[in-house]
Amino acid sequence: MSSKRPQYPPEFRSQIVELAKAGRTHAELAREFGCHATSIGTWVRQSQIDETGDTSSDAPLSTAERQELTALRRELRQVKQERDILAKATAWFAHKSEADTPSTR
Fold it and tell me: Where do the coiled-coil regions begin and end (predicted)?
């Protein structure tokens, strides 16, 4: 049985990040708010990336870049589907066209 981790709202995450930046430990916040300390650490790192806007090639993606990447992947998947449908339709019409034309012998 797989356990799915809970999705925390962005407002909750930003409040936890602010508390962590104010000096509270991740373990302390995890006990108080019922989330994992590792999650808090991830949120704090992501917040720092978003704030600094580091665009070096080895830097993790910012939230905006992640959202853009997700949207681009979704769009690419849609375009591939459309391409495949058009290829199948073209093949079908080509086959139908050949079947409809009388052979000249």
Answer: 62-89
Q: Are residues 54 and 86 in the same domain?
A: no
pTM higher than 0.85 = no
Q: Which residues, in sequence order, are CB contacts of 8 under 8 Å at separation 6+?
A: 35, 39
pLDDT at 43: 92
Asked whether the beta carbons of 14 and 20 are under 8 A apart, the reply is no
Domain residue limits at 69 = 61-98
Tell me the DSSP string of 4-67. PPPPPPHHHHHHHHHHHHTT--HHHHHHHHTS-HHHHHHHHHHHHHHHHT---TTSPPPHHHHH
| Residue 104 within a domain | no
What's the CA gap between 87 and 96, in Å, rounded? 14
**How many of the other CB atoms lie within 10 Å of CB of 62?**
17
- How far apart CA 31 and CA 29 sit, in angstroms, is 5
Q: Give pLDDT, residue 78.
A: 97
